[in-house]
């Protein structure tokens, strides 16, 4: 990356991560200019941002020296990418309504360059209908998003979706945008919203141990990428994986099944929902607050499990805001098709993509998959192919179904 980045730091506790972001962007070869909003200066200082960026820091629309030397119009244009991090609920609302009453918002309104927003706010603010509307509007305006992630908030006892992405994640998303890997806005799914789950979930036993499974997220991430290439606005709700975020996709990272369910619900409405995640069926009923210690007699502890919510089933059985096409996966080790047919009915899915996950197949974590598409009309067995090809074919068929049924959300 040898490009120029303008980093606008909004006023939130996550602003401290933006100082690290300056370093990460510079490590990748970018030059970084920083604009601090008035609220941001309550959290980080112009001195710190200036020292890390090695550039002058801009704070005031009405600063005569700044305006004479560079000016907000040049700040907005003499850059290759603008990053807004943390993108607070207030900044998103101002952007969505075209307000320009300070330097940050004036730059955002004056720019003709790509803008990447990294939201950070309390989970209730993130899921509030006003913020949902604003994000929807901004995505339609071509603003790219990275995060927010799920997890603990700075406020004591608060957890959910709203944590700003890590500096490395934002830098990676910026690199992809700078490489021109923005989402296609044309294609059979242009104007549609596709929601995808991917990866495993981690269910805590104690603060250092968890229950998980072997899902790598390759299949789910490939589906999200294929949907973005088909022109859709894509929300990918991912459990812990080591994959890069697919370009042009809003990725929300979660740990547990409960977080995945609430995140999926907050992302509705969607035209198509595809559940490729390998969600843990059980969690430890009462995860320990401290690391569990071995007892002196080395007796193994007994873990009492509780049943996790079934995300696919609860979304497929919703009456308001049920996606028009709900697609689940079935990971089976025997009687693949009969089990998948039963799952389709039990979980009220429209389609089930059944795959054999016996260890010999290498499906978990591998690059290839052999699947059967199970619908109300019957079963079609697809030849062995790469997970990318499975994803493309599934998205093509889903787009064709949607076009034939002309469903509006
Ligand atoms: O991630 P990879 O390494 O690329 O591997 C891909 C895959 C094998 C994980 C993927 O292709 C796959 O099969 N995903 C579904 C795995 C699974 O959990 O299957 P299941 O048969 O247990 O669940 C059936 C469906 O219900 C799935 O759509 C699952 O997402 C959903 N489910 C399951 C349990 C639960 N509590 N909530 C759910 O939504």
How would you explain this protein's 3D organization?
The structure is a single chain. The chain is α/β, with parallel strands linked by helices and 409 residues long. It has two domains: 4-178, Flavin prenyltransferase-like (Rossmann fold), CATH 3.40.50; 193-405, CoaB-like (Rossmann fold), CATH 3.40.50.10300. It is built from 14 helices and 22 strands. The chain has helices at residues 15-27, 46-53, 64-69, 71-77, 89-96, 103-110, 123-127, 129-140, 167-178, 218-229, 257-267, 311-316, 336-346, 387-405, and strands at residues 4-9, 31-36, 57-58, 81-87, 115-119, 144-145, 149-152, 159-163, 193-198, 203-206, 209-211, 233-238, 250-253, 272-275, 282-284, 305-307, 325-332, 351-356, 368-369, 371-375, 378-381, 385-386. The strands form six sheets. An eight-stranded mixed beta sheet has the order 13-12-9-14-17-18-20-21, sandwiched between helices. It has a six-stranded parallel beta sheet with strand order 3-2-1-4-5-6, with helices on both faces. Strands 7-8 form a two-stranded antiparallel ribbon. α13 links the parallel β17 (325-332) and β18. α1 packs across α9 (167-178) and α5 (89-96) packs across α8 (129-140). The chain starts with a strand and ends with a helix. The model has no long low-confidence stretch (mean pLDDT 91). The chain binds ligand PMT. Ligand PMT binds next to α10, α12 and β17. The site of ligand PMT has 30 residues, from α10, α12 and β17.
Secondary-structure blueprint:
Layout: E1 4-9, H1 15-27, E2 31-36, H2 46-53, E3 57-58, H3 64-69, H4 71-77, E4 81-87, H5 89-96, H6 103-110, E5 115-119, H7 123-127, H8 129-140, E6 144-145, E7 149-152, E8 159-163, H9 167-178, E9 193-198, E10 203-206, E11 209-211, H10 218-229, E12 233-238, E13 250-253, H11 257-267, E14 272-275, E15 282-284, E16 305-307, H12 311-316, E17 325-332, H13 336-346, E18 351-356, E19 368-369, E20 371-375, E21 378-381, E22 385-386, H14 387-405
Parallel strand pairs: 1-2, 1-4, 2-3, 4-5, 5-6, 9-12, 9-14, 12-13, 14-17, 17-18
Antiparallel strand pairs: 7-8, 10-11, 15-16, 18-20, 19-22, 20-21
Helix pairs in contact: 1-2, 1-9, 4-6, 5-8, 10-14
The protein binds ligand PMT.
């Amino acid at each position: 990356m040898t490009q120029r980045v303008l980093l606008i730091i909004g006023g939130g506790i996550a602003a401290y991560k933006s100082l690290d972001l300056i370093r990460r962007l510079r490590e990748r070869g970018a030059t970084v200019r920083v604009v601090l909003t008035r609220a941001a200066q309550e959290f980080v200082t112009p001195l710190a941002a200036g020292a890390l960026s090695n550039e002058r820091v801009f704070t005031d629309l009405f600063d005569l020296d700044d305006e004479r030397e560079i000016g907000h119009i040049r700040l907005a244009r003499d850059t290759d990418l603008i990053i807004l991090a943390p993108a607070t609920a207030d900044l998103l609302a101002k952007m969505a309504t075209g307000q320009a009453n300070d330097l940050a918002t004036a730059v955002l309104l004056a720019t003709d360059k790509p803008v990447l927003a990294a939201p950070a706010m309390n989970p209730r603010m993130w899921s509030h209908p006003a913020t949902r509307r604003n994000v929807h509007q901004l995505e339609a305006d071509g603003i790219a998003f990275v995060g927010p992630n799920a997890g603990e908030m700075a406020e004591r006892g608060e957890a959910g979706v709203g944590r700003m992405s890590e500096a490395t994640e934002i830098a990676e998303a910026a690199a992809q945008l700078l490489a021109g890997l923005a989402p296609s806005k044309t294609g059979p799914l242009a104007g549609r919203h596709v929601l995808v789950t991917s990866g495993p979930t981690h269910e805590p036993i104690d603060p250092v141990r968890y229950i998980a499974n072997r899902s790598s997220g390759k299949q789910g991430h490939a589906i999200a990428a294929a949907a973005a290439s088909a022109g859709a606005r894509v929300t990918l709700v991912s459990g812990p994986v080591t994959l890069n975020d697919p370009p042009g996709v809003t990725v929300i990272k979660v740990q547990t099944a409960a977080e995945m369910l609430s995140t999926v619900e907050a992302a509705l409405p969607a035209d198509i929902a595809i559940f490729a995640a390998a969600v843990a069926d059980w969690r430890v009923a009462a995860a320990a607050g401290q690391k569990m210690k071995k007892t002196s007699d080395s007796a193994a502890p007994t873990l009492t499990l509780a049943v996790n919510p079934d995300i696919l089933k609860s979304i497929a059985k919703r009456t308001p805001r049920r996606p028009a096409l709900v697609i689940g996966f079935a990971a089976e080790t025997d009687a693949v098709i009969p089990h998948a047919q039963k799952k389709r009915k039990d979980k009220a899915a429209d389609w089930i993509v059944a795959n054999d996950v016996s260890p010999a197949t290498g499906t978990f974590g591998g690059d290839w998959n052999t699947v059967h598409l199970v619908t109300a009309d019957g079963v079609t067995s697809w030849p062995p192919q790469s997970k990318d090809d499975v994803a493309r074919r599934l998205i093509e068929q889903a787009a064709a179904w949607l076009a034939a049924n002309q469903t509006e959300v």
